[in-house]
Amino acid sequence: MDSLVQKSVVALLSNRPETVDAGPFVIGWDPTSDSRFISYATPRPDAVITPDDVTALVAAFRNINRVPRLEYVTSCAPDLEKHLLDAGFTIEARHQYLVCSPDTLTVPVTPAGFGIIEPTSDEERAGGLAAQNEAFGGELTATPADVARVRRTQERGGVVLVARADDGTYVGGGQASPPGAGLSEVAGIGVRETFRRRGVAGALTAAITELAFTRGIEAAWLEAGGEDSWRVYERIGYVPMGERLYIALD
Fold first, then answer.
1. Those residues with Cβ within 8 angstroms of residue 15's Cβ, 6 or more apart along the chain or in another chain
2. Structurally, how many domains does the chain consist of?
3. 64 Cβ contact partners less than 8 Å away, ≥ 6 residues apart
4. Between residues 97 and 229, which one has the greater pLDDT?
5. Which stretches make up the N-acetyltransferase domain (predicted)?
6. Which domain holds residue 159?
7. Where among 52, 68, 96 does a domain terminate?
């Protein structure tokens, strides 16, 4: 599973608006955003990587004016972490990822008072994005570039769903990436604080995963941001698997 997840990350980055092939690495980046979480690199599974490759990778990031940063499954490049640390990179986080298959998925009933929709207009996309932004500590707004990014995800076969209260208030959202190596990454699950602990996050994650399965993927994977979200994901059928590393040169 580690190799498949890593291949799916390579495919995900290859779907960015711009890509850079840097030896054994692929950099996926978006000229409309300087977010370090959107533009980053990952190694191709089982590639032989040398310190010179890391030096060239840093130079490639400097050429596009982005922070050198990687996300990857550690077992797929066992020597890479040492090369990066020797080059001055620092570890941001180390997370275990979870995987769900059609056989393990449990879809709960959507909580009373809420609905989950697939946005078909930019107004609906912006509403879901604004709720997600607030859920992650930002402002209750969404930029045109953010909306375009979500629309592009849908156009390329990814899944985007939005949660709304019955009065029309947008309360959260999330997505699954376009399929890669038969997998999709479920990410960005966010529910505004006022509406948490009502089952919305679990229902939203399960609905996104189920829709991705109906569109042909073999498995979905994600990472939990804390113990609360970990429990939510395990309840709907996600099972802990391998380790991913986040590392950057600031």
1. 28, 156, 177, 178, 180
2. 2
3. 18, 20, 27, 29, 39
4. 97
5. 115-250
6. 114-242
7. 96
CA 71 to chain centre: 11
Helices (H) and strands (E) in the chain, counts: 7, 11
1-29: pLDDT as tens digits: 999 999 999 999 998 889 999 999 999 99
Distance (Å, whole) CA 201 – CA 238: 14
User: Do 90 and 197 belong to one domain?
Assistant: no
Q: Is residue 159 part of a domain?
A: yes
Are residues 144 and 66 part of one domain?
A: no
Statement to judge: residues 87 and 17 lie in one domain: yes
Helix (H, G, I), strand (E, B) or coil at 250: coil
Integer Cα distance of 168 and 8 in angstroms: 35
How far is 192 from 173, CA to CA, in rounded Å? Answer: 9
